[in-house]
Protein backbone atom coordinates (compact mmCIF):
# COMPACT_ATOMS: atom_id res chain seq x y z
CA UNK A 1 0.00 0.00 0.00
CA UNK A 2 1.01 3.59 -0.53
CA UNK A 3 2.55 5.13 2.62
CA UNK A 4 1.17 8.62 2.01
CA UNK A 5 -1.74 8.09 4.40
CA UNK A 6 -1.67 7.88 8.17
CA UNK A 7 0.42 5.06 9.65
CA UNK A 8 -0.12 2.79 6.66
CA UNK A 9 -3.63 1.91 7.90
CA UNK A 10 -6.84 1.89 5.90
CA UNK A 11 -8.12 4.83 7.90
CA UNK A 12 -8.13 8.48 6.90
CA UNK A 13 -10.32 10.74 9.02
CA UNK A 14 -12.09 13.83 7.71
CA UNK A 15 -11.01 16.81 9.84
CA UNK A 16 -12.52 19.85 8.13
CA UNK A 17 -15.22 20.79 5.60
CA UNK A 18 -14.90 23.87 3.37
CA UNK A 19 -17.60 24.97 0.92
CA UNK A 20 -17.25 27.77 -1.64
CA UNK A 21 -20.12 28.97 -3.82
CA UNK A 22 -19.10 30.00 -7.33
CA UNK A 23 -20.61 31.16 -10.62
CA UNK A 24 -19.25 30.15 -14.04
CA UNK A 25 -20.02 31.59 -17.47
CA UNK A 26 -21.13 29.49 -20.44
CA UNK A 27 -20.21 30.13 -24.07
CA UNK A 28 -23.76 31.40 -24.56
CA UNK A 29 -23.29 34.00 -21.83
CA UNK A 30 -25.55 32.18 -19.35
CA UNK A 31 -24.32 31.76 -15.78
CA UNK A 32 -24.34 28.56 -13.71
CA UNK A 33 -23.98 28.27 -9.94
CA UNK A 34 -22.07 25.56 -8.07
CA UNK A 35 -20.75 24.65 -4.62
CA UNK A 36 -17.11 23.50 -4.46
CA UNK A 37 -16.24 21.09 -1.62
CA UNK A 38 -12.81 20.65 -0.02
CA UNK A 39 -12.54 17.96 2.68
CA UNK A 40 -9.33 18.04 4.72
CA UNK A 41 -7.98 14.91 6.44
CA UNK A 42 -5.59 13.84 9.19
CA UNK A 43 -3.34 12.43 6.46
CA UNK A 44 -2.76 15.83 4.89
CA UNK A 45 -4.80 14.87 1.81
CA UNK A 46 -7.57 17.19 0.62
CA UNK A 47 -10.45 15.66 -1.32
CA UNK A 48 -12.38 17.81 -3.77
CA UNK A 49 -15.94 17.57 -5.02
CA UNK A 50 -18.67 19.79 -6.40
CA UNK A 51 -22.43 20.24 -6.15
CA UNK A 52 -23.04 21.27 -9.71
CA UNK A 53 -25.16 23.58 -11.86
CA UNK A 54 -27.87 24.43 -9.33
CA UNK A 55 -29.77 27.15 -11.19
CA UNK A 56 -32.95 25.19 -11.89
CA UNK A 57 -33.79 25.21 -8.16
CA UNK A 58 -34.64 28.92 -7.86
CA UNK A 59 -37.54 28.49 -5.39
CA UNK A 60 -35.69 26.00 -3.20
CA UNK A 61 -32.00 26.72 -3.70
CA UNK A 62 -29.83 24.98 -1.07
CA UNK A 63 -28.63 27.19 1.78
CA UNK A 64 -24.80 26.84 1.80
CA UNK A 65 -24.56 27.24 5.57
CA UNK A 66 -27.12 24.48 6.13
CA UNK A 67 -25.43 22.25 3.54
CA UNK A 68 -22.07 22.73 5.27
CA UNK A 69 -23.55 21.82 8.63
CA UNK A 70 -25.14 18.70 7.15
CA UNK A 71 -21.92 17.60 5.47
CA UNK A 72 -20.08 18.07 8.75
CA UNK A 73 -22.65 15.76 10.40
CA UNK A 74 -21.97 12.93 7.94
CA UNK A 75 -18.26 13.52 7.23
CA UNK A 76 -16.30 14.92 10.18
CA UNK A 77 -14.33 12.22 11.97
CA UNK A 78 -15.39 9.59 9.43
CA UNK A 79 -13.10 7.24 7.54
CA UNK A 80 -12.89 8.30 3.87
CA UNK A 81 -12.43 4.65 2.82
CA UNK A 82 -15.94 3.75 4.00
CA UNK A 83 -18.02 5.06 1.10
CA UNK A 84 -20.86 2.54 1.50
CA UNK A 85 -21.24 3.69 5.12
CA UNK A 86 -21.18 7.31 3.94
CA UNK A 87 -24.26 6.62 1.81
CA UNK A 88 -26.07 5.06 4.75
CA UNK A 89 -25.45 8.22 6.78
CA UNK A 90 -26.51 10.42 3.88
CA UNK A 91 -29.74 8.43 3.46
CA UNK A 92 -30.49 8.86 7.15
CA UNK A 93 -30.48 12.65 6.70
CA UNK A 94 -31.80 12.77 3.10
CA UNK A 95 -34.00 9.68 2.63
CA UNK A 96 -35.38 10.85 -0.71
CA UNK A 97 -32.29 10.58 -2.90
CA UNK A 98 -31.99 7.48 -5.07
CA UNK A 99 -34.99 5.87 -3.34
CA UNK A 100 -37.63 8.03 -5.01
CA UNK A 101 -37.80 9.28 -8.57
CA UNK A 102 -37.52 12.85 -9.66
CA UNK A 103 -38.57 13.43 -13.25
CA UNK A 104 -37.28 16.78 -14.45
CA UNK A 105 -34.72 17.82 -13.51
CA UNK A 106 -33.78 14.15 -13.02
CA UNK A 107 -32.06 14.82 -9.69
CA UNK A 108 -32.67 16.76 -6.50
CA UNK A 109 -30.58 18.96 -4.21
CA UNK A 110 -30.29 15.90 -1.94
CA UNK A 111 -28.95 13.64 -4.68
CA UNK A 112 -26.51 16.32 -5.87
CA UNK A 113 -25.23 16.93 -2.34
CA UNK A 114 -24.70 13.18 -1.95
CA UNK A 115 -22.79 13.09 -5.26
CA UNK A 116 -20.57 16.03 -4.28
CA UNK A 117 -19.61 14.61 -0.88
CA UNK A 118 -18.95 11.18 -2.35
CA UNK A 119 -16.66 12.72 -5.02
CA UNK A 120 -14.47 14.15 -2.29
CA UNK A 121 -14.33 10.81 -0.44
CA UNK A 122 -13.32 8.93 -3.61
CA UNK A 123 -10.77 11.65 -4.38
CA UNK A 124 -9.17 11.19 -0.96
CA UNK A 125 -8.94 7.41 -1.30
CA UNK A 126 -7.50 7.59 -4.81
CA UNK A 127 -4.91 10.13 -3.73
CA UNK A 128 -4.04 7.98 -0.71
CA UNK A 129 -3.30 4.99 -2.94
CA UNK A 130 -1.80 7.14 -5.71
CA UNK A 131 -4.28 5.74 -8.24
CA UNK A 132 -7.20 7.04 -10.33
CA UNK A 133 -10.72 6.55 -9.00
CA UNK A 134 -11.54 4.13 -11.83
CA UNK A 135 -9.17 1.61 -10.22
CA UNK A 136 -11.35 1.73 -7.10
CA UNK A 137 -14.40 0.84 -9.23
CA UNK A 138 -13.16 -2.28 -10.99
CA UNK A 139 -10.57 -0.93 -13.39
CA UNK A 140 -10.65 1.04 -16.62
CA UNK A 141 -12.25 -0.51 -19.71
CA UNK A 142 -11.75 2.60 -21.86
CA UNK A 143 -9.56 5.68 -21.65
CA UNK A 144 -11.99 7.94 -23.54
CA UNK A 145 -15.61 7.99 -24.67
CA UNK A 146 -17.81 9.90 -27.10
CA UNK A 147 -19.66 13.04 -26.01
CA UNK A 148 -22.44 15.34 -27.22
CA UNK A 149 -22.71 19.12 -26.91
CA UNK A 150 -26.10 20.57 -25.79
CA UNK A 151 -27.91 23.31 -27.70
CA UNK A 152 -30.80 24.89 -25.82
CA UNK A 153 -34.10 26.04 -27.29
CA UNK A 154 -33.97 28.82 -29.84
CA UNK A 155 -36.79 30.79 -28.24
CA UNK A 156 -36.68 33.72 -30.64
CA UNK A 157 -35.50 34.23 -34.22
CA UNK A 158 -32.26 35.97 -33.22
CA UNK A 159 -31.22 32.92 -31.16
CA UNK A 160 -30.79 30.83 -34.31
CA UNK A 161 -27.88 32.79 -35.77
CA UNK A 162 -26.34 33.35 -32.34
CA UNK A 163 -26.35 29.61 -31.60
CA UNK A 164 -25.05 28.71 -35.04
CA UNK A 165 -22.24 31.20 -34.50
CA UNK A 166 -20.85 29.50 -31.41
CA UNK A 167 -21.50 26.11 -33.02
CA UNK A 168 -19.21 27.23 -35.87
CA UNK A 169 -16.45 27.66 -33.29
CA UNK A 170 -17.17 24.25 -31.77
CA UNK A 171 -17.13 22.51 -35.14
CA UNK A 172 -13.78 24.16 -35.85
CA UNK A 173 -12.55 22.62 -32.57
CA UNK A 174 -13.69 19.17 -33.72
CA UNK A 175 -16.96 19.04 -31.77
CA UNK A 176 -19.42 17.72 -34.34
CA UNK A 177 -22.12 15.97 -32.31
CA UNK A 178 -25.01 17.90 -30.75
CA UNK A 179 -28.34 17.38 -29.00
CA UNK A 180 -31.10 19.95 -29.21
CA UNK A 181 -33.71 20.89 -26.62
CA UNK A 182 -37.17 21.37 -28.13
CA UNK A 183 -40.62 22.32 -26.98
CA UNK A 184 -40.87 25.98 -25.98
CA UNK A 185 -41.83 26.97 -29.52
CA UNK A 186 -41.97 24.17 -32.09
CA UNK A 187 -42.14 26.61 -35.01
CA UNK A 188 -38.92 28.23 -33.84
CA UNK A 189 -37.41 24.81 -33.24
CA UNK A 190 -38.06 23.84 -36.85
CA UNK A 191 -36.57 27.10 -38.10
CA UNK A 192 -33.44 26.33 -36.10
CA UNK A 193 -33.21 22.75 -37.37
CA UNK A 194 -33.56 23.90 -40.97
CA UNK A 195 -30.79 26.47 -40.49
CA UNK A 196 -28.68 23.90 -38.62
CA UNK A 197 -28.82 21.43 -41.52
CA UNK A 198 -28.33 24.18 -44.11
CA UNK A 199 -25.22 25.41 -42.28
CA UNK A 200 -23.56 22.10 -41.40
CA UNK A 201 -25.19 19.36 -43.51
CA UNK A 202 -23.70 15.94 -42.85
CA UNK A 203 -20.60 17.39 -41.20
CA UNK A 204 -22.38 17.20 -37.86
CA UNK A 205 -24.47 14.60 -36.05
CA UNK A 206 -27.67 15.35 -34.15
CA UNK A 207 -27.82 12.75 -31.40
CA UNK A 208 -31.14 13.64 -29.79
CA UNK A 209 -34.15 15.85 -29.54
CA UNK A 210 -34.70 16.48 -25.82
CA UNK A 211 -38.33 17.22 -24.83
CA UNK A 212 -37.48 17.64 -21.10
CA UNK A 213 -40.60 15.74 -20.06
CA UNK A 214 -42.85 18.70 -20.88
CA UNK A 215 -45.25 17.12 -23.43
CA UNK A 216 -47.87 14.41 -23.91
CA UNK A 217 -46.52 11.45 -25.85
CA UNK A 218 -49.03 11.95 -28.70
CA UNK A 219 -47.78 15.52 -29.22
CA UNK A 220 -44.22 14.20 -29.26
CA UNK A 221 -45.23 11.64 -31.89
CA UNK A 222 -46.58 14.39 -34.13
CA UNK A 223 -43.36 16.40 -33.72
CA UNK A 224 -41.28 13.29 -34.37
CA UNK A 225 -43.09 12.75 -37.68
CA UNK A 226 -42.58 16.40 -38.57
CA UNK A 227 -38.90 16.66 -37.52
CA UNK A 228 -37.55 13.22 -38.44
CA UNK A 229 -36.33 14.60 -41.78
CA UNK A 230 -33.61 16.52 -39.90
CA UNK A 231 -31.95 13.30 -38.72
CA UNK A 232 -31.44 12.28 -35.09
CA UNK A 233 -30.80 9.06 -33.15
CA UNK A 234 -32.81 9.47 -29.95
CA UNK A 235 -35.93 11.00 -28.44
CA UNK A 236 -35.05 12.07 -24.91
CA UNK A 237 -37.52 12.60 -22.03
CA UNK A 238 -40.49 12.41 -24.45
CA UNK A 239 -43.40 12.13 -22.01
CA UNK A 240 -44.67 14.05 -19.00
CA UNK A 241 -45.86 13.13 -15.50
CA UNK A 242 -44.07 9.79 -15.32
CA UNK A 243 -46.36 8.47 -18.05
CA UNK A 244 -44.26 5.40 -18.75
CA UNK A 245 -47.20 3.59 -20.31
CA UNK A 246 -47.57 6.46 -22.79
CA UNK A 247 -43.84 6.37 -23.42
CA UNK A 248 -44.15 2.67 -24.21
CA UNK A 249 -46.85 3.48 -26.78
CA UNK A 250 -44.60 6.10 -28.34
CA UNK A 251 -41.72 3.61 -28.41
CA UNK A 252 -43.84 1.27 -30.58
CA UNK A 253 -44.49 4.00 -33.14
CA UNK A 254 -41.04 5.50 -33.77
CA UNK A 255 -37.93 4.25 -35.52
CA UNK A 256 -35.42 5.77 -33.11
CA UNK A 257 -34.55 4.80 -29.55
CA UNK A 258 -36.28 6.32 -26.52
CA UNK A 259 -33.95 7.63 -23.82
CA UNK A 260 -34.92 8.71 -20.32
CA UNK A 261 -33.10 9.94 -17.25
CA UNK A 262 -33.04 7.50 -14.34
CA UNK A 263 -32.89 8.92 -10.83
CA UNK A 264 -33.82 5.94 -8.65
CA UNK A 265 -33.99 2.15 -8.64
CA UNK A 266 -37.78 2.33 -8.21
CA UNK A 267 -38.12 4.52 -11.30
CA UNK A 268 -35.84 2.21 -13.28
CA UNK A 269 -37.96 -0.81 -12.38
CA UNK A 270 -41.17 0.97 -13.40
CA UNK A 271 -39.68 1.79 -16.80
CA UNK A 272 -38.50 -1.78 -17.30
CA UNK A 273 -41.91 -3.22 -16.40
CA UNK A 274 -43.70 -0.77 -18.70
CA UNK A 275 -41.33 -1.38 -21.62
CA UNK A 276 -40.95 2.40 -21.75
CA UNK A 277 -37.36 2.94 -22.85
CA UNK A 278 -34.50 1.66 -24.94
CA UNK A 279 -31.77 3.67 -23.20
CA UNK A 280 -31.07 4.44 -19.54
CA UNK A 281 -29.67 7.97 -19.29
CA UNK A 282 -27.54 7.75 -16.11
CA UNK A 283 -25.63 10.40 -14.19
CA UNK A 284 -23.71 10.58 -10.93
CA UNK A 285 -26.18 13.34 -10.00
CA UNK A 286 -28.65 10.60 -9.01
CA UNK A 287 -26.60 10.18 -5.83
CA UNK A 288 -22.97 9.58 -6.74
CA UNK A 289 -20.80 7.01 -8.50
CA UNK A 290 -21.63 4.27 -5.98
CA UNK A 291 -25.36 4.57 -6.64
CA UNK A 292 -25.20 5.32 -10.37
CA UNK A 293 -23.17 2.17 -11.05
CA UNK A 294 -26.15 0.15 -9.75
CA UNK A 295 -28.28 1.65 -12.52
CA UNK A 296 -25.79 0.59 -15.19
CA UNK A 297 -25.85 -2.93 -13.74
CA UNK A 298 -29.66 -2.91 -13.82
CA UNK A 299 -29.71 -1.74 -17.44
CA UNK A 300 -27.32 -4.53 -18.39
CA UNK A 301 -29.45 -7.11 -16.57
CA UNK A 302 -32.61 -5.86 -18.31
CA UNK A 303 -30.99 -5.92 -21.76
CA UNK A 304 -31.25 -2.15 -22.17
CA UNK A 305 -28.78 0.34 -23.57
CA UNK A 306 -27.16 3.09 -21.53
CA UNK A 307 -25.28 6.36 -21.73
CA UNK A 308 -23.54 8.78 -19.34
CA UNK A 309 -25.68 11.81 -18.57
CA UNK A 310 -24.95 15.09 -16.79
CA UNK A 311 -26.25 18.34 -15.41
CA UNK A 312 -23.09 20.03 -16.82
CA UNK A 313 -20.47 19.90 -14.13
CA UNK A 314 -17.15 21.71 -14.00
CA UNK A 315 -13.95 19.66 -14.32
CA UNK A 316 -14.22 18.03 -10.87
CA UNK A 317 -17.77 16.74 -11.37
CA UNK A 318 -17.14 15.85 -15.00
CA UNK A 319 -14.15 13.79 -13.84
CA UNK A 320 -16.43 11.80 -11.53
CA UNK A 321 -18.70 11.03 -14.49
CA UNK A 322 -15.61 10.16 -16.54
CA UNK A 323 -14.30 7.63 -14.00
CA UNK A 324 -17.72 5.96 -13.94
CA UNK A 325 -17.80 5.96 -17.76
CA UNK A 326 -14.37 4.33 -17.83
CA UNK A 327 -15.50 1.22 -15.94
CA UNK A 328 -19.07 0.37 -16.97
CA UNK A 329 -19.32 -2.53 -19.43
CA UNK A 330 -20.93 -0.66 -22.33
CA UNK A 331 -21.79 2.86 -23.41
CA UNK A 332 -24.18 2.48 -26.31
CA UNK A 333 -24.53 6.17 -27.15
CA UNK A 334 -22.35 9.22 -26.81
CA UNK A 335 -22.55 10.78 -23.35
CA UNK A 336 -23.41 14.32 -22.30
CA UNK A 337 -20.75 15.55 -19.79
CA UNK A 338 -19.20 18.52 -21.57
CA UNK A 339 -19.07 21.12 -18.81
CA UNK A 340 -15.36 21.90 -19.29
CA UNK A 341 -16.12 22.63 -22.97
CA UNK A 342 -19.30 24.54 -22.19
CA UNK A 343 -17.99 26.70 -19.33
CA UNK A 344 -15.55 29.51 -20.01
CA UNK A 345 -14.40 29.36 -16.35
CA UNK A 346 -13.27 26.60 -13.99
CA UNK A 347 -11.74 26.25 -10.53
CA UNK A 348 -8.97 23.72 -11.23
CA UNK A 349 -5.33 24.19 -12.18
CA UNK A 350 -5.94 22.56 -15.57
CA UNK A 351 -9.34 21.71 -17.09
CA UNK A 352 -10.43 18.22 -18.08
CA UNK A 353 -9.42 17.50 -21.68
CA UNK A 354 -11.39 16.60 -24.81
CA UNK A 355 -10.26 15.45 -28.22
CA UNK A 356 -12.94 16.52 -30.66
CA UNK A 357 -16.01 14.48 -29.70
CA UNK A 358 -14.17 12.38 -27.13
CA UNK A 359 -13.76 12.96 -23.40
CA UNK A 360 -10.32 11.93 -22.16
CA UNK A 361 -10.58 10.05 -18.86
CA UNK A 362 -8.19 11.69 -16.34
CA UNK A 363 -5.40 9.42 -15.12
CA UNK A 364 -3.99 11.32 -12.14
CA UNK A 365 -4.53 10.12 -8.55
CA UNK A 366 -8.09 10.39 -7.25
CA UNK A 367 -10.34 12.34 -9.57
CA UNK A 368 -7.20 13.77 -11.17
CA UNK A 369 -7.60 17.48 -10.33
CA UNK A 370 -6.49 20.09 -7.82
CA UNK A 371 -8.17 23.37 -6.92
CA UNK A 372 -6.56 26.59 -8.12
CA UNK A 373 -7.19 28.82 -5.11
CA UNK A 374 -6.83 32.04 -7.15
CA UNK A 375 -9.43 30.88 -9.69
CA UNK A 376 -11.72 29.72 -6.89
CA UNK A 377 -11.53 33.12 -5.21
CA UNK A 378 -12.11 34.96 -8.51
CA UNK A 379 -15.30 32.95 -9.22
CA UNK A 380 -16.72 33.09 -5.70
CA UNK A 381 -20.28 34.43 -5.74
CA UNK A 382 -23.74 33.75 -4.37
CA UNK A 383 -25.73 30.83 -5.69
CA UNK A 384 -28.59 32.66 -7.39
CA UNK A 385 -29.58 35.92 -8.96
CA UNK A 386 -33.33 36.10 -9.40
CA UNK A 387 -33.21 38.47 -12.36
CA UNK A 388 -31.03 36.10 -14.38
CA UNK A 389 -32.81 33.54 -16.60
CA UNK A 390 -31.98 29.90 -15.95
CA UNK A 391 -30.08 28.38 -18.84
CA UNK A 392 -31.92 26.37 -21.42
CA UNK A 393 -35.01 25.54 -19.42
CA UNK A 394 -38.52 26.93 -19.28
CA UNK A 395 -38.63 27.22 -15.48
CA UNK A 396 -37.27 30.78 -15.54
CA UNK A 397 -37.08 32.51 -18.86
CA UNK A 398 -36.80 35.92 -20.43
Would you summarize the structure shown here?
With 398 residues, the chain is an alpha/beta fold. It is 36% helix and 17% strand. It is built from 12 helices and 13 strands.
Label the overall shape.
globular
Helix % is 25-40%
Give the CATH level 1 class of the largest domain: Alpha Beta
Q: What value does the average pLDDT take?
A: 93
CATH 2nd-level architecture of the largest domain = Alpha-Beta Barrel
Order of helices and strands: EEEHHHEEHEHEHEHEHEHEHHEEH
Please report the total strand number as a whole number: 13
Structural class of the secondary structure composition?
alpha/beta
CATH superfamily of the largest domain: Enolase-like C-terminal domain
Tell me about the largest β-sheet.
7 strands, parallel
| Tally of individual helices | 12
Counting structural domains, the number is 2
Q: Strand portion, in percent?
A: 15-25%
Report the span from N to C terminus: 55 Å
Instruction: Enter the CATH topology name of the largest domain.
Output: TIM Barrel
Q: How do the strands of the widest beta sheet line up side by side?
A: 5-6-7-8-9-10-11
Radius of gyration: 20 Å
Indicate the low-confidence ranges by residue numbers.
Answer: 392-398
Amino acid sequence: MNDTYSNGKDVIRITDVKLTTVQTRRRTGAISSHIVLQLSTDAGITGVGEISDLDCYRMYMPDPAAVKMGIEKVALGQNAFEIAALHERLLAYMPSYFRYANTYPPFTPASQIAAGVEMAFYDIVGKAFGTPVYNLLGGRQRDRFEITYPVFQAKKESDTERYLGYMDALVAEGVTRFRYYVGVNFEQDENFLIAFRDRFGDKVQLKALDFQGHHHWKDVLRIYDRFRQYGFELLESPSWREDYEGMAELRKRVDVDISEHISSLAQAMRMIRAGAVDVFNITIQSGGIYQAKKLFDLAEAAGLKSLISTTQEMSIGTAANAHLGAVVPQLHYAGDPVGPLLYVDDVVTEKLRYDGTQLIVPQGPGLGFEIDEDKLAALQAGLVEWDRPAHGANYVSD
